[in-house]
Specification:
- Helices cover 72% and strands 0% of the residues.
- It is flat, with a radius of gyration of 17 Å.
- By secondary structure, it is mainly α.
- Helix 1 runs antiparallel to helix 2.
- It has a domain of 65 residues.
Length: 95
């Protein structure tokens, strides 16, 4: 049970942190640059921290999420995310 709770908690915190960074970037960062904004660097740091936490979590409680869903679900979520991003970037193209 601890593995399940830790896996879902870390996943939720990771998602919320990225949604917050995306919101901040869309509302406060208004100009493009050739380099990285501080919010981009912060997103990379957040990913690095959660990568290390993921290694720790899987070392302590292996297979925390696998019992909750069939193996096709991660593939479906990636497909949905890619379609969503595609529609966001190219809103003028009708599917």
């Amino acid at each position: 049970m601890t593995g399940w709770v830790s896996a879902w908690s870390l996943y939720t915190i990771h998602q919320v942190s990225h949604f917050t960074l995306i919101w901040y970037a869309q509302t406060h960062v208004r100009k493009y640059t050739t380099g990285l904004h501080s919010v981009n660097i912060l997103a990379l740091v957040v990913n690095g921290v959660f990568l290390l936490l993921h290694f720790l979590q899987t070392h302590l409680w292996y297979d925390g999420l696998a019992q909750d869903h069939p193996p096709q679900y991660p593939q479906y979520s990636v497909i949905l995310l890619l379609v969503w991003i595609w529609r966001y970037i190219y809103p003028h193209i009708d599917a």
